[in-house]
Predict the structure.
Amino acid sequence: MSVLEFEEKTVEDAIALACQEFKLPREKLEIEIVSKGSSGIFGIVGAKKAKIRVAPKELSLDGLAERGKEILTEILRHVDLPTVIESELKEDQVCLNIISNGTGLLIGKRGKTLGALQHLVAKILHREVGENVSVIVDTENYRSKRETSLTELAQQLSEKVKKSHRSLTTGPMNAQDRRIIHLALKEDLEVRTKSKGEGNLRRVVIYPIRRGKKPQPVAALEE
Amino acid sequence: MTMLKELIEFMARALVDNPEKVQVSEIEGEQTSVLELRVAKEDLGKVIGKQGRTARAMRTILSAASTKIRKRAVLEIIE
């Protein structure tokens, strides 16, 4: 990002101006003092303005993971629950794992609470760094368990579709869950999958592909 | 109960461009508390999010936090 120079009566004033300009707190700015400035004699003779050079701090991916951890810790501090958070980077994704007493409070129905935490951390990180960061929040291995059970569900449904030659629809699912279904049936050449519906009611439809007919090109994979 | 208020304050401040304009007031009832969130007009969209997703996320976290202390809390975003 860009480097800007600021001139003000004092270094403090210049920094304040820079913060305003970048809309960032002081800790997130790389500040280089070019000249400290002096008020001269009686503030008239030989007064020199303070000059600083400022650039927003580039957060490394490790820094992002660390910051994500801080944000999540701060949110959970207000939820009266003792928690420890581990942060890790997996293929440019910030993975945050919450270690807690395992009551499921932080998971919620079908991972609703976990999803909410994930959304907020991603949103806050995005605002701070100005680019989209992919964040995964997990606890008690919920995500991998969910993936296993959804993959099983996808396979069962696809068997039924193949037997009955009729399409079947899953329950309403969020994008992350739908993606798992699509991916689970991607290799299956006898069925194809497509998401249908709006907003919260979006679900996956599994269609049979009739024999004799040319197989459809790659199944729709929007997510 | 101030903990819930602080929770909303923290989340809202982290989401908006004008954190100094974030105000949360709490109306405490016997079982249910109502938390009223006020933000600068231009930040309204930020706390609501696309199709209300961010507002919903805040409400979900709020209800998890209030369940823990055996209370009910409702988040109202005041225009």
About this structure: Chain B touches chain A through 24 residues (CB under 8 Å). Helices of chain B lie at 2-15, 44-48, 53-68. Chain B has three helices and three strands.
